[in-house]
Specification:
Radius of gyration: 22 Å
Structural class: alpha/beta
Helix content: 25-40%
CATH architecture of the largest domain: 3-Layer(aba) Sandwich
Order of helices and strands: HEHEHEEHEEE
CATH class of the largest domain: Alpha Beta
Strand order of the largest sheet: 2-1-3-4-5-6-7
Number of strands: 7
Length: about 160
């Protein structure tokens, strides 16, 4: 075998660089489901909006284990104050997720990794994920996704304005 010429070496090197760049683009633009994240949810077995929120997680690419045991004990164990409470609690990537938090915000906290307890959407606002089904029509009330701090406080992480319908 003869040694490669400088032109052949340059062509080969460009091909390797192009292949590597293409691989990186594929990794960056892979669908969310390709990076399935595990979520464990505690909910009431008879709650329709809890089931709808679990379906929202699954549609967002999360692998979900649902526990039909209620969520009071896990909320307390995770340190989520009752004033931020809702009808279901999840544990995702080490963060407590309380209530009807959109997948978009869960993915954001997992990417940003703030030193926090987790996220909460207190209560059950109409139009939030799981509270947006047929009985509610097109109604979307404004609500906040709260970033729960480890000292028991909270700040607004994302505001959803709602709509006037």
């Amino acid at each position: 075998m003869e040694p490669a010429t400088s032109t052949e070496f340059a062509v080969c090197r460009r091909a390797v660089v192009a292949a590597a760049a293409g691989s990186m683009l594929l990794a960056v633009h892979a669908p969310a489901s390709a990076k399935s994240v595990f979520a464990e949810v505690w909910k009431d077995p008879n709650c329709g909006c809890c089931k709808d929120w679990v379906a929202h997680l699954e549609a967002g690419g999360f692998k979900v284990k649902a526990n039909d045991t209620g969520n009071d004990r896990i909320r307390e164990r995770l340190g989520v104050d009752r004033k931020y409470g809702s009808c279901h609690t999840a544990l995702v990537g080490g963060y407590a997720i309380e209530g009807h938090v959109p997948v978009k915000e869960i993915r954001r906290i997992l990417k940003e990794r703030p030193a926090a307890l987790g996220l909460a959407v207190p209560g059950m606002p109409i139009g939030s994920p799981g509270m947006d089904g047929g009985p509610y029509g097109n109604r979307k009330d404004p609500y906040n996704v709260m970033l729960l701090t480890k000292d028991g406080g909270a700040t607004v992480y994302q505001r959803y304005e709602g709509s006037k319908s």
